[in-house]
Design goal:
Shape: globular
Number of strands: 11
Number of helices: 10
Strand order of the largest sheet: 2-1-3-4-5-9
Order of helices and strands: EHEHEHHEHEEHEEHEEHEHH
Catalytic activity: GDP-beta-L-fucose + NADP(+) = GDP-4-dehydro-alpha-D-rhamnose + NADPH + H(+)
Bound molecules: NADP nicotinamide-adenine-dinucleotide phosphate
Largest sheet: 6 strands, parallel
InterPro entries: Epimerase_deHydtase, GDP_fucose/colitose_synth, NAD(P)-bd_dom_sf
GO molecular function: GDP-L-fucose synthase activity; isomerase activity
EC number: 1.1.1.271
Strand content: 5-15%
Structural class: alpha/beta
Pathway: Nucleotide-sugar biosynthesis; GDP-L-fucose biosynthesis via de novo pathway; GDP-L-fucose from GDP-alpha-D-mannose: step 2/2
């Protein structure tokens, strides 16, 4: 592999709004929020490719793309993502496609003199029995949650690849691990969506059907952390501008909410007037899952969108984009 002479730097991302930025995965929940944020900040030279236009698992296509476009910055938000069922059914896809996407994008970025790359993963990289809140140092300290280990192993390899390229080539690759995200372009599929969009859809459909009640599994006691994807996009810009170090950083709000509080808030935002019933004979899931984002918060970044405001924004998007289809 050819050596290039990259120099670590920071505080340069926001200085030139005409610089070419490749946002990989720009039609996804995360990628689309990053594009909205960059456009709002005045960036004019975003290079974007749909999956159909550029399959990031194809090494030679990715190489040709970077040779032709030569972006200066890369934000890697393309990934094969899915829930427990999909991970169990398609383990080869979850490990294989993600390793291919990130290996191709990271290596081509380095070879074609990208100045800085940000790799995104998620909290599933941490061991099943991590301390709560989960600090960055919990990485690789114990066995993973078996239901998503294929995806998690690929994401851990992505973090390690960024670190290895930084060490060997002095190249500015960083990693951010966001907490549970929600917002416009989320997946509202009836069978394989995350808890927040799933609740929103169920309350909406119950409201439309004038149902008397909505039954939700468990007691509602588990504690979780949610962040609006526009806050994540804001954090991504902050990291591109201000963070340049070996360690991956957790990106969360640090605010916990019980599933019960969340469900009640979603019910209120949707305007469902029936009853919310908890089926405590069904399993609750892990009692607490929260990221320790004190390192990022210590650098001065803060989330800005309250859960209530974020839910209002997301329900509006759902009505305009999912219900109307
Ligand atoms: N959603 C969350 O709550 C959450 C939380 C923490 C971290 N993250 C991280 O954020 C990243 C993005 O997640 P997301 O929720 O935005 O996922 P998403 O909505 O499914 O978006 C992923 C995007 O990647 C594209 N993509 C997948 N395979 C590709 C390929 N081979 N070539 C080109 N494009 C490809 C997809 O295009 P197609 O749909 O056309 O395939 C899609 O636009 C992931 O790394 C994930 O771990 C997400």
């Amino acid at each position: 592999m050819a050596e290039t002479n990259h120099v670590l730097a920071d505080s340069f991302f926001l200085s030139d709004k005409s610089v070419k930025i490749f946002v990989a995965g720009h039609r996804g929940l995360v990628g689309s929020a990053i594009v909205r944020k960059l456009k709002a900040l005045g960036f004019t030279n975003l290079v974007l490719r749909t999956h159909a236009e550029l399959d990031l698992t194809r090494q030679s296509d990715v190489e040709s793309f970077f040779a032709a476009e030569k972006p200066k910055f890369v934000i890697l938000a393309a990934a094969k993502v899915g829930g427990i069922h999909a991970n169990n059914t398609y383990p080869a896809n979850f490990i294989g496609l993600n390793l291919q996407i990130q290996t191709n994008v990271v290596d081509s970025s380095y070879r074609h003199n990208v100045k800085k790359l940000l790799f995104l993963g998620s909290s599933c990289i941490y061991p099943k029995f991590s301390p709560q809140p989960i600090p960055e140092s919990a990485l690789l300290t114990g066995p993973l949650e078996p239901t998503n280990e294929w995806y998690a192993v690929a994401k851990i390899a992505g973090i390690k690849m960024c670190q290895a390229y930084r060490i060997q080539y002095n190249w500015d690759a960083i990693s951010g691990m966001p907490t549970n995200l929600y917002g416009p372009n989320d997946n509202f599929h009836p069978e394989n969506s995350h808890v927040l969009p799933a609740l929103m859809r169920r309350f909406h459909e119950a409201k439309m059907a004038a149902a008397k009640e909505v039954v939700v599994w468990g007691t509602g006691s588990p504690l979780r952390e949610f962040m609006h994807v526009d806050d994540l996009a804001d954090a991504v810009v902050f990291l591109m501008e201000s963070y340049s170090d070996l360690e991956h950083l957790n990106v969360g709000s640090g605010k916990e909410v019980s599933i019960k509080e969340l469900a009640e808030l979603v019910k209120e935002v949707v305007g469902f007037e029936g009853e919310l019933v908890w089926d405590s004979s069904k399993p609750d899931g892990t009692p607490r899952k929260l990221m320790d984002s004190s390192k990022l918060l210590g650098l001065g970044w803060r989330p800005k969108i309250s859960l209530k405001d974020g839910l209002v924004n997301t329900y509006k998007w759902y009505l305009e984009n999912v219900v109307k289809q």
